[in-house]
Amino acid sequence: MTLASKITMIRVALIPIFMGLMYLSEGEPNGWMWASLAVFILASITDYVDGQIARKCNQVSDFGKFLDPLADKLLTIAAMSMFCEWGMMPAWALMIVLSREFAVTGLRLIAVGKGNVIAAGWSGKVKTASSMIGLCVLMAFPTISWLCTVVTAVIVITTVYSGIEYFVKNWNCLWD
Fold first, then answer.
1. Ramachandran region of residue 134, left (φ > 0), alpha (ψ -120 to 50) or beta?
2. Burial class of residue 161 in the structure, from the number of CB atoms within 10 Å of its CB (0-12 exposed, 13-18 middle, 19+ buried)
3. What span, in angstroms and rounded, lies between the C-alpha atoms of 64 and 47?
4. Which of 75, 64, 62 shows the shortest CA–CA distance to 101?
5. pLDDT tens figures, 145-155
6. What is the pTM for the complete model shown?
7. What is the pLDDT of residues 42-59, one digit of tens each?
8. Alpha carbon separation from 17 to 35, 38, 87, 91, 122 (Å, rounded)
9. Are 50 and 2 in contact (CB under 8 A)?
10. What is the DSSP letter of 91?
11. H/E segment holding residue 115
12. What phi, psi does 119 have (nearest 5°)?
């Protein structure tokens, strides 16, 4: 396993810690929420670091192309799930994100079955970055309701756009 993939695995390992801290915060702006935010930021930074290492040290691998976006999905969906539980984000928004993630993952699996690997595209990276930043903002200011609406809108718009782009660019993978 490459160093880049090991760093991605650290991001995955941070998710249960993040979830535990979020649970303890009960959605309130307290020390637990700040600790959650710190872990989330650390996990988000590993997304940038593993990509830089993979490219600069020639450690790009099929495993990394699969694991990196999966780790991102798990991290952001974990945060969104907690915000849904607390009523800070509507469940329909989480369902749009989950539907897109399952659809793109399914597309990737079909492509792999045909000998192709679909790496994260530019719009997927924008979606991930804007989601991570937006979720950090919600953790920093969990009591500002209009902010929840803005962050939810940004997440949904970037999610839908990137999902459409993945299917448009890789439509040929669905047909023999």
1. alpha
2. middle
3. 11
4. 75
5. 999 999 999 99
6. 0.88
7. 999 998 898 888 889 888
8. 10, 11, 22, 23, 29
9. no
10. H
11. none
12. -80, 165
